[in-house]
Amino acid sequence: MSAESSNLSNIEHRAVIKYFVKKGKTAKEIFEDMVSVLQESAPSYTMVKKWARLFQQGRESCEDDPRPGRPVTVVTEENVRKIEKLVLADRRIKLWQIAEELQISKERVGEIIHEHMNMRKISARWVPKMLTPFDKQRRLQTSKDFLELIGYNIDEICDRIVTVDETWVRQYDPESKQDSMQWTKKGERPPKKFKVQKSASKLMATIF
């Protein structure tokens, strides 16, 4: 027998073992017979003994038994749509929350979000205040008016300017960077956070 024809698959090995078992041979006899023909390509004695015992007990199939656990079919278009709906409804939702909601593993949820939805979770960018378009326009106009007022006498005008500002300083627990993380698609700008939960305790700060 040529080397190429002696390279049998596991299922073919089992079929040979099954044939010899039905002929009444023992596991040791089957192993010695297969080694004499297949030589280095022969299965191990442990494997021959295991399958000989199974066939002697009445087993007919040469295939492997189905492995326990959930089949890898959770990455479906339906699950992608469900996860996308949950993420868009709450950008701060966590993987384990989605996994519990859909009854699939956290690893598969992460795979769908990163590879199929092309999203990642990043921290919000902190800004001191979120200005409306009206606020921006008013500040721009005020700056233009001030520049027009001082003209070429900038040094003299600046020496006479006294600025003052007042603000309430509140005590609160700032949101952590981890807490501010949100799911964003590739190319999207990072989210901003500017509003904090006001606390009851506060004091007035006046700055000159």
From TrEMBL:
Q: Which residues form the Mos1 transposase HTH domain?
A: 14-58
Gene3D superfamilies reported in the protein's UniProt record: 1.10.10.1450, Ribonuclease H-like superfamily/Ribonuclease H
Checking PANTHER family in the record gives: MARINER MOS1 TRANSPOSASE-LIKE PROTEIN (PTHR46060)
Q: Which InterPro entries match?
A: Mos1_HTH, RNaseH_sf, Transposase-MT_Hybrid
According to the lineage, what is the superkingdom? Answer: Eukaryota
Which terms does the record give in the GO molecular function aspect? Answer: nucleic acid binding
Origin organism is Eumeta variegata (Bagworm moth)
* Name of protein: Mos1 transposase HTH domain-containing protein
